[in-house]
Specification:
The chain has helices at about 5-30, 30-50, 60-75, 100-110, 110-120, 125-135, 140-155. The chain is an all-alpha fold and about 160 residues long. Helix 1 runs antiparallel to helix 2 and helix 1 (about 5-30) packs across helix 3. It is globular, with a radius of gyration of 17 Å.
């Protein structure tokens, strides 16, 4: 798969397509745009074949491409707004499930903290993967994550999530 083989590309597509669509939807807020980003992301990846050699995790490699393509799609479709708060929305909790307070608190976090928090706990990326994807030092990732969690811990609406 790491030698640019066609079967490897197909396997990568099936393994990461849902992740790409979820991430693209988070950036675009539109299902059709997210599907367009999916297509553009894998077209970008396909252009890397043959000879593609992955030197990091696939999510680390794909994250910047999906983010940039998503932002471009928002601009292109004239739905881009200067307020980027919606970019890091967490999916709404299921009917009757707790979590509305969490979403409200997340919306007040600075974008750079919210981005790292969502990448870590929603996308399941490691600290080093986040650092690579955002091209920032791991220490910066840790600091942003620490500060975001501190805000969540100190907010009475989310305190229940941190009690043992």
């Amino acid at each position: 798969m790491n030698r640019g083989e066609a079967d490897g590309f197909e396997e990568l597509y099936h393994r990461y397509r849902d992740w790409v669509v979820r991430l693209a939807y988070r950036f675009t807020g539109n299902h059709d745009d997210a599907l367009d980003v999916l297509q553009e992301t894998f077209a970008y990846l396909l252009r890397k074949f043959p000879g593609f050699r992955l030197t990091a995790s696939m999510t680390t490699f794909l994250y910047p491409a999906v983010k940039n393509l998503s932002i471009a799609a928002r601009r292109k479709s004239d739905r881009y707004a200067s307020n980027t708060d919606a970019l890091w929305d967490v999916p709404a909790p299921e009917q009757g499930a707790p979590g509305g307070e969490l979403a409200a608190v997340l919306s007040v976090l600075p974008e750079i903290q919210r981005e790292v928090l969502v990448m870590r706990f929603v996308d399941g990326m490691s600290l080093s993967e986040i650092a690579d994807a955002l091209t920032i030092p791991v220490g910066t990732v840790k600091s942003r994550l620490h500060n975001a969690l501190k805000v969540l811990k100190n907010d009475k609406r989310t305190l229940q999530y941190f009690q043992e």
